[in-house]
Specification:
With 147 residues, this protein is an alpha+beta fold. Helices cover 24% and strands 33% of the residues. It contains 3 helices and 7 strands; from the N terminus they run βααβββαβββ. A 4-stranded antiparallel beta sheet has the order 1-2-3-4, with helices on both faces. The chain has a 3-stranded antiparallel beta sheet with strand order 5-7-6, with no helix packed on it. Helix 1 packs antiparallel against helix 2.
């Protein structure tokens, strides 16, 4: 499995944009639109895992998430794992790769917003807050110290 981060100049950018727009969860078309519009700052990135030329995992590393007026940053966001690769610790590898990149930018923590309270603890995330997202849903904010 190959893990890399993408910029809009990368050959995989359009492939991932198309892939995200066809994914089943409501957020993925939003990611595709964000990618099409190039709405990423200087250090924000899209991470992807490829195996046998197939996208098996992706996420973004961004300043913000769905939580308005949030003091936390940076976020691992738009996390997706292909159904055939779930329960194979792909997320752990990817989150570690994001953490390595974040460390080069002198960040000491990563944040994830999720309603999956059992999922991210196994990747050393801890609950730090609860806030309403843009739709008014209460979401949990998790953090993890970067090793």
């Amino acid at each position: 499995m190959k893990i890399k981060f993408l910029t809009s100049k990368d050959d995989l950018w359009d492939k991932l944009t198309d892939y995200a727009s066809s994914c089943s969860r409501e957020a993925w078309p939003i990611l595709a639109q964000k990618m099409e519009e190039g709405n990423f700052s200087d250090w924000e990135k899209v991470f992807v895992a490829i195996e046998n030329d197939k996208i098996v995992w992706f996420c973004t590393f961004t300043k913000e998430d769905w939580i308005p007026d949030c003091d936390y940053s940076p976020f691992v966001w738009f996390i997706f794992v292909d159904e055939n690769y779930r329960w194979k610790r792909v997320s752990e590898k990817m989150i570690n790769a994001v953490g390595e990149y974040a460390k080069t930018l002198n960040f000491d923590k990563l944040y994830i917003v999720s309603d999956h309270k059992w999922l991210y603890e196994k990747y050393w995330f801890e609950k730090c807050d609860e806030k309403a997202d843009e739709l008014g849903r209460i979401e949990t904010i998790f953090f993890r110290k970067i090793k």
